[in-house]
Design a protein that fits this description.
The protein is 55% helix and 13% strand. It is elongated, with a radius of gyration of 31 Å. It starts with 11 loop residues before the first helix and ends with a strand. 39% of the residues are buried.
């Protein structure tokens, strides 16, 4: 018995009970997802690098929304990430609906997964019947691609929803009977455009897929088929391409520079592709050619789905040889071409890239499952008793195996470190965040002596957003900046980076590394440690995974009494620890000087310390530099070295101010001196 034709319906009671079971399964999945997200993910650092950038972008978009920063939101569109545009916005929308936490943002992946499951199940149910629909869902839920630590449902990066959207695209093409349904071109074009706007580079295989399918339908028309169906296919396939290009071209043009730098320089002409190939253990052309086929079987499909796929291929060949069935897909709807092209094109395009990734081939998962189901579907309808017994045994084995596989994958540990080590990482990050808040820094510069997914500037920035929340008014804008990449850094450059940093991570690393940056840092680490000890204060130390990490910070002080971004005639209150004053007694700060508005006269500054034993006037100067455009304040606090107080308070006052309303600038009636310092530092007296 052959499969039901496209568009035919199963008996309604059978359909309803299958969908009720499906809804229950999805609800259980969602519950399991949120338990895992809250218990293992939300309270620890996001692992595996790339998702840090997407989390930070989504948090920034949310913060811009809550603060009505429409220009900021527009900037996210005008200067998208080089990988894609939509994903951070989708994460922000999920965060908005779910309360703004990491689990809410991560639920973007869950939403796309459940949509894919529903569409796959619905399509297979209508096309092949309940047994094939459930088999397709079982195979999908058994794949390693769904729960890989990198690129899986718990990993917030574009790879997972790219897999889902590509699967939805292939299902839509097949469901349309390869562009035969009216208006199917517009729907397919919208899905393709959504996919490309999530991952720009996917146009490299989505574009050829739509083009080749258009050529296939056109060839069918010119080879002799002059039916209305063939003309409908041509119109719809052309329309799909037109809709896709119309939507995506403006955004691809806007992102052209980012695309060139990231993909052309980063993946073709630069030095990084060779490093990435070496990271994957590729040293020959044959290894490069076989990388993605092997990756698909081992890393994406996993053992269960791979075995079923092989079984389907063998069974299909055997049944065709015995004439048991004809090919369900050879019924004039070009489905074989769709499946072959949707699997082969991504593999071909990805294989041409010297830089290899262990996750991007996950887009082939759904087309392969569809091909497997098409191969096994004749078994569901055959009356041969041998095949019937085989089907029952195979079904029982699959259900048990898939259930165990799914439970094991969905509840697996999501981190490399123990819970105690993860909490130590939190303390290291929190120490840097607390320092930046105390020093009133919004863009602290971080130096780190190794490539680290736990303590890199973006990881600390994401932690800061999650600690502060995105609904603050004004929203938090703390972002740690860093220098360096994968490549070697000489000792002088590294030392300069360290001296100019606000915070520094100096580790006890000594193991060999693939990356030139790590190797160069291993050679210079002890010299860098000496510089950090001499010029910075240690604010935290933890041992994680047997390796010590020390956080150093530039000695600094806090300033109170600001009015917006301005210093007023009331002056400022400076607070600093006595311990730091003993080492670095010169307190320095600088910022923009409104020289003309001050009547072209440089203000004089006075510094008076209030201690538990009385007041002490400190030597203080204010100099105008850069053609009177900036001020530089220096306070000598050596007189406070004998103070019994742990925290020293210094009141800073000025002898001049201006009132904007009085000199015709605007209606502001505040008595303003200058803008708040944009740099501050503490130095030793012999500096």
């Amino acid at each position: 018995m052959n499969s039901a034709p496209l568009g035919s319906s199963l008996p309604r009671p059978s359909t309803e009970i299958n969908f009720k079971i499906l809804w229950g399964l999805m609800a259980a999945q969602a519950l399991s997802f949120y338990i895992q997200a809250e218990s293992q993910l939300s309270i620890y650092y996001p692992r595996s690098w790339d998702q840090l950038a997407y989390y930070f972008q989504s948090y920034t978009i949310l913060a811009d929304y809550y603060s009505s920063n429409w220009k900021g939101l527009a900037d996210h569109v005008a200067t998208p990430m080089p990988n894609g545009l939509l994903f951070p916005f989708e994460g922000a929308i999920s965060g908005l609906l779910g309360g703004g936490g990491r689990a809410a943002i991560l639920s973007t992946n869950l939403a796309f997964l459940l949509l894919l499951e529903f569409r796959l199940f619905s399509f297979l149910l209508r096309r092949f019947g309940p047994s094939s629909a459930w088999l397709g869902l079982i195979l999908l839920l058994s794949t390693k691609a769904l729960f890989n630590n990198v690129g899986g449902v718990y990993d917030f990066r574009i790879d997972f929803i790219t897999m889902c959207l590509y699967g939805l695209l292939v299902i839509a093409i097949l469901e349309s009977d390869t562009f035969l349904k009216p208006r199917s071109g517009a729907i397919i074009g919208l899905i393709a455009a959504t996919l490309i706007l999530n991952r720009f580079v996917s146009i490299a295989y989505v574009g050829p897929l739509l083009l080749l399918l258009f050529l296939v339908t056109t060839a069918g028309r010119w080879s002799g088929s002059r039916s209305e169906a063939s003309l409908e296919r041509i119109v719809n396939s052309f329309g799909a391409g037109l809709v896709t290009l119309s939507i995506t071209t403006p955004f691809l043009f806007i992102a052209r520079e980012q695309l060139f730098n990231y993909y052309v320089v980063g993946h073709i002409t630069g030095a990084e592709p060779a490093l990435r190939a070496a990271e994957m253990g590729i040293s020959s052309t044959m290894q490069a050619a076989l990388f993605y086929p092997r990756n698909i079987l081992v890393t994406q499909l996993g053992p269960l789905t791979s075995v079923v796929a092989l079984f389907a291929l063998i069974l299909r060949i055997a049944m065709r040889r015995h004439g048991t069935t004809r090919d369900n897909f050879h019924n004039g709807n070009h489905s074989v071409a769709v499946l072959v092209l949707s699997i082969a094109l991504p593999v071909l395009v990805l294989s041409l890239d010297v830089s290899k990734s262990p996750i991007v081939a996950n887009v082939t998962v759904v087309p392969i499952i569809l091909a497997v189901i098409s191969g096994l579907s004749p078994l569901a309808g055959t009356k041969n008793p041998n095949y019937t017994s085989l089907r029952r045994v195979a079904t029982a084995i699959l259900v048990v195996s898939a259930s165990l596989t799914y439970v094991a994958n969905s509840t697996a540990t999501q981190h490399l470190f123990s819970r105690a080590d993860l909490l130590r990482i939190n303390r290291l990050q929190d120490a840097m965040i607390a320092y930046a808040e105390r020093a009133q820094l919004t863009r602290p510069m971080e130096f780190i002596d190794h490539l680290s997914e736990t303590l890199n500037p973006l990881a600390v920035s994401v932690r800061a957003f999650e600690k502060q929340g995105v609904r603050m008014n004004p929203p938090p804008r703390l972002r740690f900046e860093g220098r360096g990449d994968l490549f070697e850094v000489d000792k002088t450059t590294a030392a300069n980076w360290l001296v100019s940093a606000d915070v520094a991570v100096i580790s006890d690393h000594s193991k060999q590394s693939l990356w030139p940056f790590d190797r160069s840092m291993n050679e210079n680490r002890e010299e860098l440690r000496k510089i950090a000890i001499a010029s910075m204060e240690m604010i935290e130390r933890q041992v994680v995974g047997g390796i010590g990490y020390t956080i150093f910070a530039k000695p600094t002080f806090s300033l109170e009494g600001r009015s917006g971004d301005w210093i007023t005639s009331r002056g400022l209150k400076l607070e600093v620890s006595r311990e730091n004053v003993l080492k670095w007694p010169l307190l320095l700060m600088s910022g923009p000087l409104p020289y003309d508005w001050l009547g072209r006269i440089v203000p004089k500054v006075r510094a008076v310390a209030t201690t538990s034993v009385g007041t002490v006037e400190l030597p203080a100067t204010l100099e105008a530099r850069s053609d009177n455009r900036t001020y530089h304040i220096a306070i000598d606090a050596r007189k406070l070295s004998d103070s019994p107080d742990a925290i020293l308070a210094i009141n800073i006052s000025f002898d001049r101010f201006f009132v904007p309303a009085q000199i015709g600038i605007n209606g502001d009636t505040r008595e303003l001196v200058a803008q708040m310092p944009d740099t501050r530092a503490m130095k030793a007296h012999n500096w």
